[in-house]
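## Example record

The block below lists the input lines for one assembly entry, exactly as stored, with component labels intact.
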Amino acid sequence: MTQDIPLTWFLYFASASFAIGLMGVLVRRNPIAVLMAIEIMLNAANINLVAFWRYGTPPPGEGPITGVMLAIFVITIAAAEVAVGIGLILLCYRRWHASDVDRYDTMSG
Amino acid sequence: MPSTAALTMNYRDFLVLLPEVTLAFWGLIVLAADLGFWRARPDDVRLRRLGVLTLIGCAVALAAAALPLLSRFAILDPSTCPLVNDYSSNPDPLVFFGTIADDLLTQLFNLLLIVMFALVVRMSMSWQFTTSWGEYYALLCWSTVGMMLLLASEDLITLFITLETMTICLYLATGIEKNRLRSSEGAFKYFVYGSVSSALFLFGLSLVYGLTGTTRFGAIREILAPIVEPDRLLHATHMTVIGEGLAGQVAGATAVLLLMAGFGFKIAAVPFHQWAPDAYEGAPAPVTAWLAAGSKIASMIALMKVLLGALGPWSASAASVLSPGWIGVVVVLSSLSMTYGNFAALAQRNFKRMLAYSSIAHAGYMLIGVAAAGLSTRRYESAGSVLFYLIVYGFTNIGAFAVASWLARDLGSDDIDDLGGVGRAYPFLAVCIVLMMLSLIGMPPFGGFFGKLYMFMEALSQPGDQVSRLTLIWLVALGLFNSVVSAFYYVRVLKAMFLRGPTRGTLKPASSAIVLPILVGTFVVVATGLNPRPLVEFAKDAAVPMLSDGGSTAARTASTPPRVVPIAPPPAPLPSKTVATAAEVAARVE
Amino acid sequence: MIVPIFVLISVIGLLAALGTVLSRNLVHAALYLVAFFFTIACQFVLLEAEFLAAIQVLVYIGAVAIILMFGIMLTRNILGDDTTSVPAGWKLPAGLASLTLFGVLAYGISNHTGAHGSAATVGTAWSSVSQRPGIGPDADPKTPRAVAIANMGKTVGDEMMTRYVVGFEVAGLLLTAAIVGAVVLAYRDGADDDPARRVLKAVGLFPPTPPPPGRAPTPAAGPAATAGEPRV
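Predicted structure tokens for the full assembly:
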């Protein structure tokens, strides 16, 4: 066996992706672009989970694939969230005839 | 498969989930009944029939939720009924391999949530705000299932899924009033803020998983609990050995901050509150009621379970608030939420928006109790005071949003000034509304007063070092100041009702759909105000399993982490009539 | 050998993520996102979770990215121009915020010392874990994890039906709710456009009912004339 990848490298990758996703959420005004950035953040968390599963030592009584199971559930939730998000975006687009987060602003205070 | 073959499902566990399963299926039944039978009917007929059908489902679920409580208190003899027998013969408070709790807390709150849900359903039948009735009721049912499982979950994986189920159903229900711009806008904002916060929450969760290697609350607590050598215990003179806290653990601190961002969003604490006013104002009033009551109750309990239960050893090191730990975060969130919520509510003219800011402020009050429970030796009492507060708050808010439904039904708006003339036209209902508003302010002798009093007393009766006591005293002082501030905007409602005439139009007589939630809210406020002791004790008993039983069987038999707290002098009795009653309440509780 | 592959994949992944976030054209952003999803799948393969990699490709690239594309098309961004750009003054703080977040996370990861707690299993610092356990000629193929890696599909099924059965059922409920709700919200309103009623009408079962007073959305009117909306 040659040299393996250190755990921290995966974690750095996940953190960097997460930070990029957060930047996208803050920077973009198009709702679909915001949704994409959120997906990046969720994927970053998944990398974390699977890396911790593969490298860590589970305490006694723990299932064999906890991190992977959570990652699978996260993928499911992300799919549901995107479906709901696109539904809401279409609804808002039909109302305002614009896809711009800053223009959905009739309430104030 | 040596590892997984050992796991065998105990199908009796599903009996524990009977209320949840009933409601989940009932959502499908309502949807099928709408699509299959009643879609061609006029909307008002559908509204009524589907509402009644959903109420029948609530009744069935209520019966299922009442069974374990009845057998617990020996009202029902377990041997007579095979179903109850199965319920009560389960000695383990954790079912489904330690992912779901089955204890007094979940049983009590299942029952309460179903009652509140039935009120919300009844309120929804008051006017037609959508045409998709079947889908509307189904989504509300499913969000309730999410809430009930959320407060029962004992595992971060289950917690995350149920949290998402609850919020996704609520995003959709918020946007259901499709012919109003603000409903779509509120739903959209709720969705965007909600998904960002759940992404943050998930990343924090992944860090906790990495730090501990597990997702079960009990196991996390066990792993994080410090080792204390015996001699160190003996020589601990001043400092409490609660744990090292988060000192030197930047990864753990980041995880806590990210988790708090997620929870702070769900309970609408400043600075994660931006969605709340828009979503509350935009959503149809029954959905807002469910957002304010059900969602907040379930998320607050989940927050307490995670922070006090699983991450308890990370509360603070050496019992000092200023050391790294989640107590400091909770203190900051609490002060910000109370102050911002109340001052922003002062400026509101819209009734629902005002209630939104007031609910932000109430989240701040509740966090005082969480901070107290984290620092205190009387953890159960402190957490129980938060539960008591939540129950009273939930019923009061449903009643208050029934008033908003009334306004929306007859006037299509919900400004505070539109309540003008109610005092003269409907004196009885007006008095009920007055009682609820007084309870929200925290005026004696109503439920809200005892909720606050009990929580503040717990916060004040903390032993511990100077810094943490001063911090809690500061929080309580801020809470009292904020209660005074809040009086100004609640009183504006009363002023509009009694001193002003009708502005936009007169309200037609309220239907029973609106009267019922108001009456129940008033009843809870008055009943818990006149005799708070039974509910207070019940809440305290419910808080015990929430904080201690979270975990595997091994975790429960293992000794709890050592907490050596120096005996501090009890707080000086405050010379006041109201505080005397407070001490009475506290004494009776003990 | 595995290290350069990881570095290559990570660099591509981060560039794709940056492209998603920064490209002005939404369709380009979506394509970058597909590339990002694919690099995540590659990372899963490197972490020996091939089953998860397959799910990643099927669900994220096969479903999520396609739904996003539909969303882009349906909101008339057919050319994909994201004309609503952000004022430059806001970009700098956002970039700084995310850089700070990355800095804090990276500092926390590299300085992790293991939990203070009692369990020796989590006592090792992350930065000292340079080798995944259970690999090599002397590794035990009977550990739960080794078994799980060898039969990932079976293990996932077993876990879903036992330990995480509540989560599994709730996930099913969540997907149902999301589909029902998304259909309701995204469908055009008005009684005639109700999907179920349209079917009923086609078979002659739907009696035309007059819309209730006070709530009459006129399809011809624009969004500004949405009924019942108080003027701001």
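Chain C touches chain A through 101 residues (CB under 8 Å). The CA atoms of residues 18 and 172 of chain C lie 33 Å apart.
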